[in-house]
Write a sequence for this structure.
């Protein structure tokens, strides 16, 4: 730090080392790379978004699904009001027994879906959809035996229990299906009818063997009644599934419609209506699907290609284990490139496999159309292939589709991190990471504790608390304000009032405010670090465009070219801590102007000055001030170690001074000739602080700021002694 009576040295006289220079050049290359990568990442994200939108076609899918589900739930009714059958007042959701299942199929489902007479064409459904082949009715059952019931009471009644070979551990209540299945919550029973190997499957087919409904529907009705009489569905039937494949020509989309009934071991019947669309040919429209796919592929490999070329070139020169200091970008950048390419390739392969399968399904329908209408084996193969596509292969494709946006987010985060203004949020997360993950540990411990309490209070009465995972999820939702107070108060009003009040005080008022304090504190630190003169994104873009123009005019050399030339010149000695001059840099890089070289050196010196004068945190200053105050309190004891025979650099104590001394005399030879000997009063804290401030002129900014803070509380305001007049240390303890 320069003193008032000292002139700052010229920048061309300041020594710069190779390490400082090339670290600064590497940072500038990374900043340029991040600035270019930001629009490329945004463009890659836009192409990926467009590709997903046109491949998924969610609006068409939802319209297709809503039309079918609404018709079945609203119109496939049973339990009519009399012989005239004017009104049915039960639908699929009112099926609660085996009898209700048969009534629903015979009076509701088959007349409403299978036997619709639209345009006189068999299988035409809702005017725009065509049922392919017919329908398949399948049951999955378990074997019954008395030996399974390990109970003396059961043996008295000769009761039989079903043998479950594999318990569905993800189901609520295990394989008992104690609660209604919710989508993928019961992985075995609701992930598709063909993926439970332990169940025994029975299948019956209802084919459109004739093109007139007057001939087809009596056969179907007779077969349904025969199956009912022969107990095709009984107490051992665990799952009953009616499957139909239909096609919509306007949307060019297939759909697998599954009407499912789960029969739990308590006698409860759970219903599930599932319509799963499938696009049999996503490549039929060249634009815009193919355009988005090709642009995404180009952008996927465009960025990493040049990075990998530089990386391989350097690895060949210095070895893979000595790459870290020599690569122009951080290793994390190359790692993200590798992960992005790998995720992109996996996505390409899974998407290609899924598209190939859908094309095969389309080809199978076209080539075997007649057999599908008559032959049950061909029809069953069609349903099996569609089930495989919508239940298993599409799930794999969507899982990979979910991973790739995470990689894009990380790439954008790194690109944001190199722009000061955009880096505030990523830096806050990094700055507060240690406090955040400790907070998460405390937060999850508290939430788990409240989940256990809610599980005990409400587990017997409410579905959302019936299992501990559900209670835990419900507690997390409560933390964000999603609570059904009416439901809780009905179960236990007093317990609910206390539980809710304590939960909101601990989680809502305390923990969330602690989280807010952590984030705000980190935000203040980041903002203070960046300062007020931080360049904006617009300023960086303008500077980058100006540099590109000068490079194009041969007025400057691109930094990556400069880096590789320096690497050729200095090899493994690039980061040696030895002085380097602008003349050496000009000599090492052909075509480098002295103005650009001087600019690089000036940038290093400027950054060094900014780093030396960086503001110190108040907490650090207070800590240093406390340490200095303790040291001053120990001054008399520390001076007692000196004797009169010590070196002239030691203070001289007056002969009449009692021990320990209260003041010391500064050596004459250490003072200016125009100034007489002076005494330093050790009992005067202000004088001692000012004397220490002068001694700390060449010390770190932390020590200087700490002494200045202590001086701010002093009453006296005298001039500080010149640091050139004193050359010995007041305290022989570098730590203080």
């Amino acid at each position: 730090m320069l003193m008032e009576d000292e002139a700052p040295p010229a920048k061309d006289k300041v020594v710069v080392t190779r390490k400082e220079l090339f670290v600064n050049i590497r940072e500038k290359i990374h900043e340029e790379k991040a600035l270019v990568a930001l629009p490329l990442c945004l463009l890659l994200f836009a192409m990926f978004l467009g590709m997903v939108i046109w491949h998924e076609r969610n609006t068409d899918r939802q319209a297709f699904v809503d039309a079918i589900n609404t018709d079945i739930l609203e119109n496939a009714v049973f339990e009519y009001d009399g012989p005239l059958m004017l009104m049915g007042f039960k639908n699929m959701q009112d099926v609660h027994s085996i009898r209700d299942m048969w009534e629903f199929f015979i009076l509701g489902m088959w007349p409403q879906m299978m036997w619709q007479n639209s345009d006189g064409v068999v299988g035409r459904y809702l005017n725009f959809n065509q049922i392919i082949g017919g329908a398949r009715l399948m049951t999955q059952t378990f074997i019954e035996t008395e030996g399974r019931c390990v109970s003396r009471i059961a043996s008295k009644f000769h009761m039989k229990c079903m043998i479950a070979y594999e318990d569905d551990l993800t189901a609520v209540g295990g394989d008992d299906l104690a609660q209604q299945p919710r989508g993928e919550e019961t992985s075995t029973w609701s992930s598709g009818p063909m993926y439970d190997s332990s169940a025994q499957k029975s299948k019956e087919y209802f084919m459109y063997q004739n093109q007139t409904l007057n001939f087809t529907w009596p056969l179907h009705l007779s077969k349904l009644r025969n199956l009912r009489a022969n107990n095709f569905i009984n107490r051992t039937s665990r799952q009953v599934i009616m499957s139909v494949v239909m096609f919509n020509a306007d949307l060019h989309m297939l759909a697998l419609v599954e009407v499912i009934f789960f029969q739990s071991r308590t006698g409860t019947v759970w219903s599930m209506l599932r319509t799963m669309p499938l696009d049999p040919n996503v490549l039929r429209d060249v634009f815009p699907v193919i355009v988005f796919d090709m642009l995404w592929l180009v952008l996927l490999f465009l960025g990493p290609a040049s990075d990998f070329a530089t990386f391989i070139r350097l690895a060949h020169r210095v070895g893979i284990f000595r790459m870290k200091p020599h690569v122009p970008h951080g290793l994390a950048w190359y790692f993200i490139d590798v992960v992005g390419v790998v995720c992109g390739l996996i996505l390409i392969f899974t998407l290609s496999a899924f598209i190939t399968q859908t094309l095969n399904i389309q080809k199978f329908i076209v080539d075997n159309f007649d057999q599908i209408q008559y032959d049950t084996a061909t029809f069953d193969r069609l349903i099996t292939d569609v089930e495989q596509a919508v239940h298993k292969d599409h799930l794999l494709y969507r899982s990979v589709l979910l991973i790739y946006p995470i990689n894009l987010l990380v790439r954008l985060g790194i690109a944001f991190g190199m722009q000061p203004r955009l880096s505030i949020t990523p830096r806050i997360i990094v700055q507060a990471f240690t406090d955040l993950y400790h907070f998460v540990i405390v937060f999850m411990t508290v939430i788990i504790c409240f989940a256990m309490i809610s599980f005990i209070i409400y587990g017997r009465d409410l579905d959302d608390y019936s299992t501990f995972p559900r209670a835990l999820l419900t507690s997390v939702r409560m933390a964000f304000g999603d609570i059904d107070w009416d439901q809780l108060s009905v179960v236990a009003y007093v317990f609910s009032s206390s539980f809710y009040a304590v939960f909101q005080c601990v989680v809502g008022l305390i923990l969330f405010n602690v989280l807010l304090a952590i984030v705000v504190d980190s935000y203040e630190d980041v903002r203070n670090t960046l300062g007020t003169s931080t360049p904006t994104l617009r300023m960086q873009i303008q500077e980058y465009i100006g540099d590109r123009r000068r490079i194009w005019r041969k007025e400057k050399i691109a930094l990556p070219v400069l880096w590789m030339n320096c690497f050729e010149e200095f090899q493994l000695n690039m980061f040696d801590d030895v002085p380097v001059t602008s003349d050496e840099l000009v000599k090492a890089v052909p075509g480098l102007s002295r103005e650009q070289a001087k600019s690089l050196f000036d940038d290093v010196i400027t950054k060094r000055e900014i780093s030396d004068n960086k503001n110190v945190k108040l907490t650090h200053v207070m800590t240093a001030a406390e340490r200095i105050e303790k040291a001053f309190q120990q001054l008399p004891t520390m001076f007692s170690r000196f004797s009169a025979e010590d070196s002239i650099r030691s203070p001289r104590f007056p002969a009449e001074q009692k021990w320990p001394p209260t003041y010391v005399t500064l050596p004459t030879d250490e003072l200016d000739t125009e100034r007489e000997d002076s005494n330093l009063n050790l009992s005067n804290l202000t004088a001692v602080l000012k004397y220490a401030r002068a001694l700390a002129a060449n010390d770190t900014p932390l020590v200087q700021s700490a002494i200045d803070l202590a001086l701010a509380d002093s009453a006296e305001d005298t001039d500080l002694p010149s640091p050139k007049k004193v050359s010995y240390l007041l305290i022989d303890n570098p730590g203080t």
